[in-house]
Design brief:
99 residues, mainly beta, four-stranded antiparallel beta sheet
Length: 99
């Protein structure tokens, strides 16, 4: 599991999971998300069959913007789904690995 770094302490209006950058990517990318309130956060990556391939964050966090790096060196060159669960809310985005 990777630690998320808080990059801004300003309180956003809504929960958001931004598109990864760079995207598509070869081995690593950065995911950013925004939390409008303190809550338990889980940021998980799944393959397209629904199998969990990585948990990037699983911890309580304060409001603000966060960034976390994802190293996909051991994964196949296909698409994946990133799921951000924060309290009762869920956001998803897609990742594509190209080699």
């Amino acid at each position: 599991m990777t630690d998320a770094e808080q990059i801004d302490t300003a309180v956003p209006a809504t929960l958001a999971l931004d598109a990864a950058y760079p995207h598509p990517f070869a081995t690593s990318t950065t995911l950013e998300y925004a939390l409008p309130q303190a809550t338990d956060v889980t940021l998980t990556v799944y393959d397209l069959l629904g199998r969990q391939v990585a948990t990037l964050v699983d911890a309580p966090q304060t409001p603000g913007r966060y960034a976390v790096s994802f190293d996909a060196a051991g994964l196949s060159s296909v698409s994946y789904v990133v799921r951000l669960a924060a309290g009762d809310s869920v956001e998803t985005t897609r990742l594509t690995i190209t080699r």
